[in-house]
């Protein structure tokens, strides 16, 4: 999916050590006028988001209702619905309409958060995680069986809300997300022997597990307001590139951020047997990592040794550089839309993705 960038990262090691995260990507394309904060701009559209979700999840059985509402407590960052809201407004202005959200677009922002949260509930079961967003996971508190059922129920409620939008193309686009999530999880369970195949596998898995939801949600809101396939593609490509960059930075933070920041222990991916970007890049300098990757860091001492190899290598810098390249492509895509505060906020968001520390 991104072979040339991966090759480029390998070729430009010396440059990578001094050129990691840019101070500001968007200034090269836009004027010095500072765009509004994306969270502030989307706030009015998102203020009732969690209340709307809890209404969708209304059930008479008290325990199920409590479990469904557990993560929808209004304390999440709501990054995905925020991107969807900003993209919808930017597309509406681009399409000669008022910027206000259409009801279907608002529903898509809500559905994106529901699908995302359902996938987290299921991921925690698969990974055996006991913490999520700084609180105990559902599987840790109430057991795996109930957690699986809660994830399924949230997905079913999201599907009902999706059907009510009444656009078959939108249904098809967002159904692709659920397929990708499952395929991505299966990909995460496997390893590739060949180095180049391994990196391609990692990026494809990253797209399916993280970026597909953002890409297809952005595409879905574009379908509701514009019939031009090129506009749909701009929305999709922005979401795809920002989504991959977001996950690459997340993979870096697993090595550079403390548990208090992330709300989960560091080196979590290594402990799960996962070789993310920093490890795959480090393998170029420390071939000893190859055997550890293939056995998924299962031998005693593997996690600590792999951790040290990554920190001694430039794997973190190279992964940051790759994230920067994806953000540059996201900026290139969204800059094709007509200027608007929301479009510029989407551009500013790429900088926030690259510089976040949690």
Automatic annotation (TrEMBL):
Pfam families: polyprenyl_synt (PF00348)
Organism: Collichthys lucidus (Big head croaker)
Residues spanning the membrane: none
Places the protein is found: Mitochondrion
Catalysed reaction, written as an equation: 6 isopentenyl diphosphate + (2E,6E)-farnesyl diphosphate = all-trans-nonaprenyl diphosphate + 6 diphosphate; 7 isopentenyl diphosphate + (2E,6E)-farnesyl diphosphate = all-trans-decaprenyl diphosphate + 7 diphosphate
Documented EC number(s): 2.5.1.91
Gene Ontology CC annotations of this record: heterotetrameric polyprenyl diphosphate synthase complex
Keywords: Isoprene biosynthesis, Lipid metabolism, Magnesium, Metal-binding, Mitochondrion, Transferase
BP GO terms, sorted: isoprenoid biosynthetic process; ubiquinone biosynthetic process
Species classification: Eukaryota, Metazoa, Chordata, Craniata, Vertebrata
Record protein name field: All trans-polyprenyl-diphosphate synthase PDSS1
Top-level enzyme category: transferase
Pathway where this protein functions: Cofactor biosynthesis; ubiquinone biosynthesis
Family from the record: Belongs to the FPP/GGPP synthase family.
Cofactor dependence: Mg(2+)
Subunit structure: Heterotetramer composed of 2 PDSS1/DPS1 and 2 PDSS2/DLP1 subunits.
InterPro entries in the record: Isoprenoid_synthase_dom_sf, Polyprenyl_synt, Polyprenyl_synt_CS
An example molecular function term from Gene Ontology annotations: all-trans-decaprenyl-diphosphate synthase activity
